[in-house]
Amino acid sequence: MSTTKKFINEPSNAVDDALDGLVNATQCIIFDKNCRRVTLRSDYTEYCARGLVALIAGGGSGHEPFAAGDCYLNEHCLSEQHIDLFYLPRIDSWNLKILVISGSYVLYLGYIGSGMLTAAISGNVFASPPSRHISAALNSTTTRGGSILFVINYTGDRLNFGLAAERYTRAGHHVRIVSIADDVAIEASKLSIGPRGLAAAVLIIKIAGAMAESGKYTVEQIESMANQLSKDAGSMGVSLYPCSLPGFGQIFEIPKDMMEIGFGIHGEPGSRREPVATAQHTVDIIMTKLHSVISLTKGQRIALLINNLGGVSQLELNIIKSEAIKWCREFTNFFPSFVLNDVQVTKVRYL
Q1: Which single residue of 51, 152, 276, 278 could bond 144 by disulfide (Cβ 3.0 to 4.6 Å)?
Q2: Over the stretch 150-176, which tens digit does the pLDDT of each residue have?
Q3: What is the DSSP string of 315-336?
Q4: Both 157 and 245 in a single domain?
Q5: Residue 218 half-sphere exposure, CB side, CA atoms within 13 Å?
Q6: Does residue 326 come out as left (phi exceeding 0), alpha (psi in the -120 to 50 range) or beta?
């Protein structure tokens, strides 16, 4: 298996080198003094002193900007004011569905800052961070408002975040866990821990971040909202090319004339393979599946995220966006209340 070409130095140092670049390029993210795999919003001391709810997420590297990145989303794409106006007035009667189309993948580091995460933990590429690193993030962001750990539904993440939460609770602190499981490609009954977690986490964390930053909501209210949105979210991906790890070759092969429907963000098999199709047909496959699982109704408020996993041009993304919006209008007679077409959760291929 030949090594794929990537712009890195030593494969074993790729994650730490990437974190150095992210932190050194911005003033809104800093390293935790006790663990350089933990990154914090630069004003975390003041934030926690205000008694606001701390929001923490993490996972394997290779999905950037999720969760480690450049503060782009919270400053430009989903402003706190936008979220306040769109979601928070109806906090007692949520009626929002999240639909995600995910194509070739980014995860937590880019979502630290005002109106989003308080801290993020980066594991090795495609590997859950160890529980001691998660504990370091919890200990550095202790606040009387309590903490929420956002966990993407994978076995390693659930185990390690769960262990850290248990230790933190035994120490007398208040922490909740929100597990995000939005993948609709494979029936939950066929997966031992339920549906996989995908890019819906981006919008769920943004909404939770706006609530936490406002200081108007308790940890229980934010947890309840996030859990409800997780239940009402659906994601499905399609890939034309396989992913690969730094220093290694491709994890799997996809024939040149085929595409993988419903693959996982670490290269897990999808639900099936089909011949490469037009954007219109591909979007129809995904949206039809999302519609069948999420049970959309006329007048339903929808946030539509079209996520670029890292290998799709902006021209292609705009075509996909057009087809997705047309599908919504034709089949459900509504226009999405919010549309985001961007690189939010990625997979390593061109690292």
Answers
A1: 51
A2: 998 888 889 999 999 999 999 999 999
A3: HHHHHHHHHHHHHHHHHHS---
A4: no
A5: 4
A6: alpha
Residue 44 lies in domain? 13-74+104-231
Are residue 110 and residue 157 in the same domain, yes or no?
Answer: yes
Task: State how far the Cα of 135 lies from the Cα of 293, in Å rounded to an integer.
Answer: 36
Indicate which residue of 133, 173, 174, 266 is catalytic: 266
CB 29 within 8 A of CB 39: yes
Q: Quick check: 146 and 175 in contact, CB under 8 A?
A: yes
Distance CA 243, CA 250 (A): 6
Q: Is 133 designated active site?
A: no
Structure tokens, 328: 């919504």
Rounded Cα distance, 225 and 203, in Å: 12
239, β-bridge pairs: 260
Which of 246-255, 275-284, 342-351 has maximum average pLDDT? Answer: 275-284
